Amino acid sequence: MCVILPFARQRFTPMDMVAWKSILADRRRRGLWQRMERSSTRERDWILVWLPGLKDPSLRLERDVQGTYRLSFHDGQGWFQFRQGPEIIDCLAHVEPTDRLHPAARRAD
User: Fold this and answer.
1) What is the DSSP string of 13-43?
2) What is the pTM of this model?
């Protein structure tokens, strides 16, 4: 007998991780990113990215229980979401944050 367990929607899939590595790995190789760390809870899965010379993470890629992907940056005062979508590529296609004052930029919780 075979039991199939559904993949948790709040977790990055193996293909998500392939996309993450193939699209953004060169930033680490070029020294643009200091380190990356992945964490998971029952509500979300996220990857934090530290930029060189900073003690706190500057970027956060996450997937929540609805399967929504979000990319946020930390400006020293709080997290600001600048990309969101149902696919990881919605966040990884452009990793430069929009202007904080632009209406599309929203404060992330």
Assistant:
1) -HHHHHHHHHHHHHHHHTTS--EEEEEE-SS
2) 0.75
